[in-house]
Design a protein that fits this description.
This protein is mainly alpha-helical and 507 residues long. The chain is built from 16 helices and six strands. Among the domains are: 1-143 and 325-339, no CATH class; 344-426, no CATH class; 446-507. It has a four-stranded mixed β-sheet with strand order 1-2-4-3. It is elongated. It holds the Pfam family Peptidase_M56.
């Protein structure tokens, strides 16, 4: 078990998952910004259109997070195979502290992956416990304190279901455990009404409520809500995602309200039904605010139906949008300061070696152009050291500079100069070059590992053969020992027999 938690594969998965969790924060921020812009641009649009757009954005979020996890896992695997750490570019990360922080995120995930995932898992278990409590309550509602309503109400539900083209059989029951009309089930949906609601509300209001619940059934909102609950359990820490999820729930209710209004044309009755829910506190704590500072969703629905106006951003949400855009702009500026680590190398020209043999003048020219951009001081020091080494190497070859005659050398003696990189050693590789180098090294390591494994298999087979041969030799030695014992006994018998015959023949 201890080896399981310390295995490299598990550590790679933990690092990738922790990176995905951290990246989901800014991805949720972008999701919230896009959703807020959609809300501002669709003030006069039907609720169904807004719901489709926002729900599509919400569905895209876990897909992007899964892709982020896949990329992080591939990068972690490549880094492990190559045996290299996360590449850094210190010469270009001193512009701002935020840039340094952004550069260190992968290293932070690598160092604290276990702690991040453990902390997330602890809260994840709490969220799962809350969901289990919710499902327990649903099972209680489905099994306890159920009453059959009057027959004409079931007939009304059947007629309204046909009117909405709901092909499923919908059952209507009264429950003593629920305080609000709810729909439970997908294949066999059941509408649970609080006890007394059918008798205390006018028939027109009850019909509007039933149409609203039947709209949920026709739209398959039960399954969508389960998906939302699962996603909210995983990304419980992501404020942007949670806010967009609340917007989706709100627009879902608006869509069902529009369906009820379209088939009843009783705007007043639906508003009065919602007001009655508010007056008698039927919704209780089941309705939470979509965003800190917003009004109750039930009151928003009443205002929307009465004023025929879609919900837009309130003051707190607008402030959140502006702050989010500011953070994104700041992060964009931060990442623009990040340049490839090999930019400074482009300002150093390569050594130019011109060798003229057969009695002609040999000339070697080395040009070092000052860098236009500021580079790291270590790059200059490394370039100076390599330049001195090149000069010493030229001196050892007995060549001359500036038309001074020297003994001729063969091409093989001058060849090493062409492979000296005076400046290249002091300048870090670009990310693409480093990646190619790491990939090549990883391939070499993999081939070497295959060779070592093949050699280990051969050694194991040879050891098995040696063990079998030793077993056969030991068995043969045992047989020889037994035969020697038999021969010794037989020799003893022969000796006694010979002695007896000799005594018998003696007069």
């Amino acid at each position: 078990m201890a080896n399981l938690f310390t295995s490299p594969v598990l550590q790679e998965w933990l690092r990738a998952f922790s990176c995905m969790l951290l990246h989901s924060l800014w991805q949720g921020l972008v999701l919230g910004i896009v959703t807020a812009i959609v809300i501002l641009l669709t003030k006069q649009t039907r609720a169904a259109v807004r719901y489709n757009i926002v729900s599509s954005l919400l569905l895209l979020f876990p897909v992007v997070c899964a892709y982020t996890f896949w990329l992080s896992l591939n990068n972690a695997t490549a880094a492990t195979l190559a045996g290299t750490a996360t590449p850094q570019a210190p010469g270009f990360m001193h512009h701002t502290g935020l840039a340094q922080l952004a550069e260190n995120i992968p290293a932070f995930c690598t160092r604290y992956a276990n702690s991040i995932v453990l902390l997330w898992f602890a809260f994840f278990l709490l969220k799962c416990l809350q969901i289990s409590i919710g499902f327990t309550y649903i099972n209680r509602v489905k099994r306890n304190n159920l009453y059959q309503p009057a027959t004409h109400w079931q007939q009304t539900v059947t007629a309204l279901a046909k009117q909405l083209h709901v092909k499923k059989t919908v059952l209507l029951l009264e429950s003593g455990l629920t305080k609000i009309p709810v729909v439970i089930g997908h294949l066999k949906p059941v509408i649970y009404m609080p006890i007394g609601l059918l008798n205390h509300l006018p028939a027109s209001q009850v019909e509007a409520v039933l149409l609203h619940e039947l709209a949920h059934i026709r739209r398959n909102d039960y399954l969508v809500n389960i998906f939302q609950q699962a996603a909210q359990t995983i990304f419980f820490f992501n404020p942007g995602f949670l806010w967009v999820s609340a917007i989706v729930k709100q627009e879902r209710e608006h869509c069902c309200d529009d369906v009820a209004l379209h088939h009843t044309q009783a705007r007043k009755q639906l508003v009065e039904a919602l007001v009655n829910f508010t007056r008698h506190s039927l919704y209780g704590s089941a309705y939470t605010t979509a965003f800190p500072g917003t009004k109750n969703q039930l009151a928003q629905r009443v205002m929307r139906i009465a004023c025929n106006r879609n919900h837009t951003l309130n003051g707190a949400e607008k402030i959140f949008l502006l702050l989010s855009i500011g953070v994104c702009i700041a992060l964009t500026g931060v990442f623009k300061t990040r340049q490839p680590a090999d930019t400074a190398a482009r300002h150093f020209s390569k050594p130019v070696i011109e060798s003229m043999i057969a009695g002609k003048t040999q000339q070697i020219s080395y040009v070092a152009t000052p860098p236009v951009l500021q580079a790291n001081e270590t790059h200059y020091k490394a370039a100076a050291v390599n330049l001195k080494a090149a000069v010493k190497h030229i001196a050892r070859t007995h060549m001359t500079i500036d038309d001074t005659r020297t003994p001729q050398r063969s091409n093989s003696e001058l060849q090493p100069l062409a492979y000296m990189p005076p400046v290249k050693e002091g300048i870090p590789l670009s990310p693409q070059a480093q990646m190619e180098k790491d990939r090549a090294q990883a391939e070499k390591d993999r081939q070497q590992a295959e060779k070592d494994r093949a050699q280990a298999d051969k050694d194991r087979q040879q050891a098995e053969l040696d063990r079998l041969q030793a077993t056969r030799d030991r068995e043969q030695a045992d047989r020889d020992r037994v035969q020697a014992d038999k021969d010794r006994v037989q020799a003893e018998l022969d000796r006694k027999h010979a002695a007896a015959e000799r005594n018998h023949n003696t007069p």
